[in-house]
Each structure stands twice: as C-alpha cells, then as structure tokens.
Amino acid sequence: xxxxxxxxxxxxxxxxxxxxxxxxxxxxxxxxxxxxxxxxxxxxxxxxxxxxxxxxxxxxxxxxxxxxxxxxxxxxxxxxxxxxxxxxxxxxxxxxxxxxxxxxxxxxxxxxxxxxxxxxxxxxxxxxxxxxxxxxxxxxxxxxxxxxxxxxxxxxxxxxxxxxxxxxxxxxxxxxxxxxxxxxxxxxxxxxxxxxxxxxxxxxxxxxxxxxxxxxxxxxxxxxxxxxxxxxxxxxxxxxxxxxxxxxxxxxxxxxxxxxxxxxxxxxxxxxxxxxxxxxxxxxxxxxxxxxxxxxxxxxxxxxxxxxxxxxxxxxxxxxxxxxxxxxxxxxxxxxxxxxxxxxxxxxxxxxxxxxxxxxxxxxxxxxxxxxxxxxxxxxxxxxxxxxxxxxxxxxxxxx
Amino acid sequence: xxxxxxxxxxxxxxxxxxxxxxxxxxxxxxxxxxxxxxxxxxxxxxxxxxxxxxxxxxxxxxxxxxxxxxxxxxxxxxxxxxxxxxxxxxxxxxxxxxxxxxxxxxxxxxxxxxxxxxxxxxxxxxxxxxxxxxxxxxxxxxxxxxxxxxxxxxxxxxxxxxxxxxxxxxxxxxxxxxxxxxxxxxxxxxxxxxxxxxxxxxxxxxxxxxxxxxxxxxxxxxxxxxxxxxxxxxxxxxxxxxxxxxxxxxx
Lengths: 400, 251
Prior knowledge:
By secondary structure, chain A is α/β, with parallel strands linked by helices. Chain A has helices spanning about 20, 75-85, 90, 100-105, 340-345, 350-365, 375-385; strands at about 50-55, 55, 70-75, 110-115, 120-130, 135-140, 140-145, 150-160, 165-175, 180-190, 195-205, 210-215, 220-230, 235-245, 250-260, 265-275, 280-290, 295-305, 310-320, 325-335.
C-alpha cells in the first residue's frame, strides 16, 4: 500500500483544520502507559466498562459484564470481519479517510462489539491518554455491529491523565442492521494541551436508528470527521454536537450524512462557542441521492463568538439530487444577544455571570440531550468549569 | 413623605432623536403613579432610561433614586438598589430556567446587601407562594425564561419576578397590554400586593382599564417627551373619554 495522501488546507473538508497539529496524528503508536483507578470517572450505572490507556486495553481497570459482546481483536482480523459490512469505497477512498487509514495501519488492538439480533447492551469505553506526543500517538479503534433489532447504548469517553500533551487518533466504525437502534455518546475532555483526532463511519440499515451525541471540550487541537450513510429504507440519524473552544483551542469538525435510500431522515444540531482566541468550525454536509425519495433532512448549526480574538464558522452544504425531499437547514454565527443580556442585567445579575449564563443557555439544548443523565451531569460540570461563574449559580443542581 | 424617585428636567436621545425633553417627576414612597400618553410620547424610553438600557444618551437633567444618583449606576446596580423594570416585551431566553434566573437575581441582591445566599427551601417556599398568587403552574419554574410563553404568561412572569425581588420601585411598562380581563385582574392583584408604605410603583399604560384595578395616587400625561398634565385618578377617566388631543392643545 502506498503512503496515504494526507490532507492539506486545499482540501475542501479540511480548510479549518489545524494541520500542524494534524501531523502528529501519524506518529508511531505510543507505548502502553498505566494509570490508577483514581484517574477514571465514576462508573455509569448499568454499563459495562472497558478501559484503554494510550489505546491499549487495561484489564485491571475494566469491568466487562458476563456474556459481554465485546472482544479484542488483532487489527487485521477485525478489518476482514468488518469490511463486508461497509461500503468499500466509502471506507477507503480519498483524503478524508487518511487519519482512519493511519489508525488501521498503526493501531493493533481493535475493540470489536458484535451484538446479536434482538440483544441489548450498555457499554462504556474509556480512553485515557497518558503518553506525551513525543513518545508516539495512541490509536483507539472500535468496530460495532448491532444486529437486527438490537439495542446498544455506547458511551465513548476520551480523557487525559493529567495535563500531558498527548496525541490521539481514533477510528470508530458502526454498522446497524435493520431495525437496530444505537445510542452513541462521545465526550472528549482531554487535556488542553492534547491533539485529538477521530474518524467515525456509520452504516445505518433499514428502519435502523443511529443517535449520536458528542461534546468536544478538551484538546489544544481537535478534528472530528464523520461519515454516516443511511443505507436502508427509513434509516434515521439523529446527530447532536456541542463544542466549546476556550483560550487558544481549535475544534474543527466535518460531518457528512448521506441519504441513500427512500424515507430516510436526519436531524443534525450543532452548537459551538468560541471564547477568547478559540477557533471553531463545523461543516455539515447533507447528501440526498436521486433514489432517496421522501427523505427528510433537518439541520441547525449555530455558533457563538464571545471573544475579540475568537473565530467560528458554521457551514451547511447540501447536495440534493431529487425533488421529492424535505430539507430544512439553518446556520448562524453570532454574538451574545444584547436584549437577553440587558434583561439579565436588569434583574441585578452581574455582567460576567450574565454572559456565562447566556453561553450556557446557548449550548444547553445540545448538552441536554446527552444520555445517560449521569454522563450529562459530568459534561455540564466540565462545561460550567469552562464558563466561569456558572457553577456559582447552582445551575447544576436539579430544580426541586 | 420621602421622595423615592426624583426626576429633574431629564432629556434623552435615541439615535440622535430627542425623545425626552425636560421631564420632571417625583414619586414618593407609598405612592402609585400612572403615566399615560399617546404612542411615541416617550413612555417606553422613560422606562428604559431609568433601567439603564444601552443605546440611550442622556443629554440633560438628573435622576435621584433613594438618595442615589441613578444615572451613574450600571443597569445591574440599579436593580440591586431596588429598581425593577417590568418589560413591555419580555425576551425569551431558552436554556436558562426560570427558577435559576429568580435565584440568581435574588442572590445578586442579597449579596449586595451583605446577606448570605437564600436558603434553598425558603426560596422555593417563597416562589411557590408568589406563583400561587399569580396563578402560575409550578411547571413554569423549570421552563426556559419566557420560552414559548403566551403574551399573558410573559406578563405574569414579569410580575412574579417583581414579587420575588420586592423592589423599592417597580416601573411597569405596559404590563397590561395584550391581557384579557382575567389576566389583567391577576396582574393587578400582584401589583397591589406589592404596595407598601416604603415602596413606589410607576405604571406606564396606554389604557385606563388597569387603573380600575390598581388605583393610582397620581396620573400624568406624557407628551412630546415631558409631563404635559398631572392629576388624580379622575384624569385617567377623562383621558379615556376625551382622548389626548385636548391635553396636547393645552400644553
């Protein structure tokens, strides 16, 4: 295999990516590190837990359930077992998959989740980055097959042990057989010095539903790439992303959702805040194929700028090849609403708190959809720490 | 009687346009004053200037509130000093719960008074009691501020906030507009429950009907940016009958 083409700023879908940081995504695999149990967040009730340190399985910290659908495979075996589920051309073509190909070439442990038809499972995958980027990159890799009518709740968390400047390049493939339902929640709260890259490929079968929730909070530089194919009739995707870029953080995301069958439906929501000198970009591409009659695509992308040096771009792209479609899309980039701000000030709330409160409110409609509730509270707590003054309002307590 | 609010010769412009032109008005503690006037006479501008909304330039005069120079204070400090603006068009803030807003506002005031934060239980008891008075369902507490509220619900929510914050002076900007008669009575009950010897209310209204339920001590007609005529509650009835033109002619 020849060296894969690497993205440049000339590539349409990589215009906003931090390419200097991206170069770290192709180092050799980092040596396996070790962390103590205290580095891990509290367990989620009812979820079996699998912990990986620098991309490698850490048995002592993991708590698999009896009859777990999770196995660890060698990268080559996994690739063969999985390839037939996905479109070969989707998964392998073009510069957009350069990071995923590097992951496949360098990562050697693959989490393989095979959920049989009608089965149900709740899985929490925790990836802890403990190695400095200078010693290598970690390559988390997950492959999920949800069988016919299966129900899977998948939580994927990326965090750091301390403030180390790790590099992470992860790849997740998800295939949903007909009638399957997968709730996939990803929380990236790595150290603010880390570089974090991921590629997600999902293939959604007939009448299957893929619900993806993601919150991007950490990392000096992050790039998320997602390709979701609604391959079967009446396949659905619900995609909700929230991102906060503080200080000098750069968060860039590209998500393509391909309606390739009739009666397919998508709802995509992005809420992003860039404060101080943070940079944010979200590029949401919707394709509706000629045969995808009566497809329904609803897209709402909003970004908020609150710093004089902050930058944000929310870009919807539509490629529609049929008239029989319902497509709704909106994208805005704005500043805090002056009327809302004055309303809060007129109630005696100080300016800094009012600003934080409005920022909170801005991302809340994306964050509020994170399940389970325990994880949502973790994200809210992390978010409150980023938006100064919010925690002092007791926002995190449930109203009585 | 102590003067709660003393406006002297106040002039203000919006976008270079003169809106208030030498307005003078005194509200003593314990009094309810109504300000009436035709569209464009400067009623809403007066309420915004008092509350400290950006975009208004004060070109003359002064305002003393409880012995303090009101115009030198930023909006949030005016609120903490006891001034409350009931908005004509309350803004919707999805994502900020009503209960959070109430609590944050109450604690901001308490903090400025050197008091500790309100006890969570006492706070809820207080809010529940006031909601009952305003005939608001408790589910409103966990909804976003004014989010998806009807016009009447928004106005009730303004009065609820007022009752929880117990301001020394409430400036209510057309709180009666868009209310049906039942809602008007509920709002009037809320305002009346705030009346006290040490408080004042400035009711800005277009119509006389609110004044049947909240009886004012004085009624003023605002025209061309100043008080054109003042009188007791019978002035409101006369305005209702005769309109504003005769006042404008005399002025």
